[in-house]
Amino acid sequence: MYIATKVKTMEFSGTMQISGKAKELKAQGINVIDLSVGEPDFPTPQRIKDAAIKAMEDGHTGYTMAAGIVPLRKAVGKWIKDFSGVEYAVNEIIVSNGAKHSLYNTLQTIIDVGEEVIIPAPYWVTYPALVKIVDGIPVYIDTTSESDFKITPEQLKAAITDKTRALILCNPSNPTGSVYSKSELEAIGKIVLENDLYVISDEIYSRLVYDDFEYASFPSLSPELKKKTILIEGVSKSYSMTGWRIGFTAADKELISGMGKLQSQMTSNPCSISQYAAIEAISGLQSDVEEMRKTFSGRREYLFNALNKIDGVKAENAKGAFYLFPDFSSYFGKSNAGTKIEGSMDLAMYLIAEAQVATVPGSVFGAEGFMRIAYATSMENLEEGIKRIKEALNKLS
Ligand SMILES: Cc1ncc(COP(=O)(O)O)c(C=O)c1O
């Protein structure tokens, strides 16, 4: 069967491979502890589900404007302004089918064939894949746990060529949970302006920041930087709405108009019912969101301490999102009953087979040596998962 090269050479998402394996085992009745998933375990708050039911009853079941209904785009503008002080007009906001789609629209709108997009590693697996889909070239900047997995202005400067069009910043980060401080962002912003780059600032985890960390949104740094920023936001993570498929992009109106054109030809509007639910999500009482954030923070504390108590495991504490990214490399080269652990993928497969615990290997995020462990699951599951990981690691020698 003929398949176009672009799709033939595309890799399956590494995270999906692992969660697929976990689902397969669960379907066989095996009690798998899934620490691989990138979605909250909470149900969508009732007030949001009620708003969706009302939208259907009110007959909001037809096509909407391709870029999303005006009341939602207005609500997004207010939601962003209340959070970071940055003002966006309705024609500077587009609603898409999840933040992943927002990112696709963005890249398709700003990248011409052969242009380079800088991606700090470890990265969310979808970034390189999307850059390749739009015929751009991903250029990676490696970071280490010593720098809290953040790039420096010097590293950024060194990675820029005359083909560089954009930098993707994931802040807070999936997979590491690290968050840039305002001054770190300002130093990056200076290089961005000097080189006339776009910054795709993926802030989908912006509402999940812990320890009173003072979060700075990239477009809030200066009016000049706002002009160069494409802000990606959404309801999937902070409102536990992954299945509703609503993402937001805020940027200069010419860019948004380009994305609107693209979206109108590709998908038309995002789900009408989800759009009405999203208005309630971001405009209604936010106490449920705060409850979820506090629960995540408690789990994070537990996981951080428990991981560091395991022999040979080193974890930094995350400031945001719902992942830790500990170093497991001291187990590489060891084996158990003929199974040798050469790298993080082997370790992930070993942990599923031996302990029935699903984690995601650092290699899929471009950072060998580490494992991504999500705490978007109950405390009981985390405790059981840690116990099983410890037992399985103890069998390696
Ligand atoms: C960093 C990051 N950006 C965007 C997304 C996509 O979110 P959505 O479900 O809204 O498409 C994810 C989901 O895993 C993510 O981790």
Question: By helix and strand content, what is the structural category?
Answer: alpha/beta
Order of strands, widest sheet: 2-8-7-6-5-3-4
Average pLDDT taken over every residue: 96
Alpha plus pi helix count: 14
Secondary structure: helix percent: 40-55%
Please write the CATH class name of the largest domain.
Alpha Beta
What is the number of independent domains? 2
* β-sheet strand percentage: 5-15%
SSE ordering: HHEHHEHEHEHEHEHEEHHHEEEHEEEH
Using the coordinates shown, work out and report the CATH topology of the largest domain. Aspartate Aminotransferase, domain 2
Bound molecules: pyridoxal-5'-phosphate
- Uncertain runs: none
> What is the correct CATH architecture of the largest domain?
3-Layer(aba) Sandwich
CATH superfamily of the largest domain: Type I PLP-dependent aspartate aminotransferase-like (Major domain)
Largest sheet: 7 strands, mixed
What key attributes describe this structure?
397 residues, alpha/beta, Aspartate Aminotransferase, domain 1, 2 domains, 3-stranded antiparallel beta sheet
Task: Describe this entry's structure for a reader.
By secondary structure, this protein is of the alpha/beta class. It has two domains: 5-43 and 288-394, Aspartate Aminotransferase, domain 1 (Alpha-Beta Complex); 61-283, Type I PLP-dependent aspartate aminotransferase-like (Major domain) (Aspartate Aminotransferase, domain 2), CATH 3.40.640.10. The protein contains 14 helices and 14 strands. The chain has helices at residues 5-8, 14-27, 46-57, 70-84, 99-110, 126-133, 153-159, 182-194, 223-228, 253-266, 272-283, 287-308, 344-355, 379-394; strands at residues 33-34, 93-96, 116-121, 137-142, 164-170, 198-202, 229-234, 247-250, 323-324, 335-336, 339-340, 357-358, 360-361, 371-374. The protein has a seven-stranded mixed sheet with strand order 2-8-7-6-5-3-4, with helices on both faces. The mean pLDDT is 96. Bound molecules: pyridoxal-5'-phosphate. Pyridoxal-5'-phosphate binds at residues 38, 98-100, 124, 170, 174, 202, 204, 234, 236, 242, 247. Pyridoxal-5'-phosphate binds next to helix 5.
